[in-house]
């Protein structure tokens, strides 16, 4: 439980630093854009390459992954139905909305939570891999096609996804993980140094946007509360239902499934929204509220499901 609190505190402090430097006038929205681009094009691909390359790819076949996929599909489907028939969102806005309700902070928060609360950091690997290798490339392909106005049919959509820097980094990492090959230190060391910029850049950019952007919930109304409710309540419940009633998991494995689904929305989604200039307020505010709201959800799950 201490690990979960430590992870949340670390994220909150770095975001607060970003807000502080913006408040003091040291950085403006141009700096926020620069940090987001740095994370998207440079640091995050390096992070994905190393993270996946050093993961146990066999975990992809675990029950954790099956339950995680079920929770993502059900939760995203609910959001997309509401977005289409109630809110009349564009494809880009709906994509950011779906990501905001399902794409969890499995990296800089999920890893410490898994290590200190569950006792095994590798338990977050299945979710991390499915997000990086399926959810992110698919979502970015949709954003490339519908937000940036790309045409050319399926071929261009696939090529666009494969040329995305995050997808490239993820695929290279998967190749490393499957081959068992280890990067020589002369390559690994600079990549690791660059990768370490990813999370701080995301968090600082997010803090700057919180301070200089529109106020919390500005113009979002029910959209914000629907996305937050889906993320904090529906996704963990569906993960529990799939893990316990369908897969028969219990004890520590079930706790791992629920906690992973209960993690807050990842800062990556704000980077994506900023990159494509769509749904930025929804992504920003959902991240903030779910980061705060996931604390009691995770602590409650730990108390109820701990073996």
TrEMBL record:
Ranges that cross the membrane: 6-27, 34-53, 65-83, 95-117, 123-146, 158-181, 193-212, 224-247, 253-274, 286-305
Superkingdom of this protein's organism: Bacteria
Subcellular locations according to the entry: Membrane
Main location: membrane
InterPro entries with a match to the protein in the record: Mem_transp_PIN-like
Electron transport keyword on record: no
Annotated membrane topology: Multi-pass membrane protein
UniProt entry keywords in alphabetical sequence: Cell membrane, Membrane, Transmembrane, Transmembrane helix, Transport
The protein, known as: Membrane protein
